[in-house]
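[Discussion] Sanity-checking designs against the backbone

I'm trying to build intuition for which residues belong where. Below is a structure token string of 187 positions. I'd appreciate it if someone posts a full sequence so I can compare it with mine line by line.
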């Protein structure tokens, strides 16, 4: 019995052979990948053993594809809850404990009721317990200080942090493209 095509996503690389994103990992469904191949938008870099057929043609499913035109990366990432969690490595900035995203919240270091704004420089990741304890107090009043000063990350920083959180599924043909620019160990 063969593997379902749905279990065969394609890793999408930019024209410079770097993944479009690490977290979430840039992958397309097999249908999107084949459509892009037929439209001439991508190059097939690696293939699965799985073949899809129609009456007039057959094709191995792409496992790694690269864009033909370079897609520039945005330098300034969107200010979203998820990107704050990613910047802070999914760790409560008060107790230092890592949590799954559904157990995290964000905290205004200077509470909004005290003039604090919802910005990269005033919001940190917090677990529910620490957020409740800190409440609407300033860090000095609560005796709770974030482990790092909140800052606006670049897209490159978030990409780099995202590499530390690999997805559940990594096909062996992807590995060389996900970590090609990391430092090699001296032997």
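Best answer:
Here's mine. Compare freely.
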């Amino acid at each position: 019995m063969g593997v379902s095509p749905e279990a065969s996503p394609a890793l999408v690389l930019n024209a410079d052979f770097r993944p479009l994103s690490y977290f979430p990992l840039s992958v397309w469904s097999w249908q999107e990948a084949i459509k892009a191949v037929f439209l001439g938008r991508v190059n097939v870099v690696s293939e699965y053993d799985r073949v899809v057929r129609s009456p007039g043609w057959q094709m191995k499913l792409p496992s790694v594809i690269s864009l033909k035109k370079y897609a520039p990366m945005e330098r300034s990432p969107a200010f979203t809850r998820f990107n704050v969690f990613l910047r802070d490595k999914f760790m409560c900035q008060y107790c230092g404990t890592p949590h799954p995203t559904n157990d995290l919240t964000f905290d205004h270091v200077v509470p909004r009721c005290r003039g604090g704004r919802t910005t990269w420089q005033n919001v940190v990741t917090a677990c529910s317990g620490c957020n409740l304890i800190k409440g609407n107090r300033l860090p000095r009043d609560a005796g709770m200080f974030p482990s790092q000063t909140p800052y606006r990350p670049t897209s490159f920083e978030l990409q780099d942090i995202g590499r530390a959180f690999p997805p559940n599924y990594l096909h062996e043909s992807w590995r060389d493209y996900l970590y090609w620019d990391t430092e090699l160990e001296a032997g």
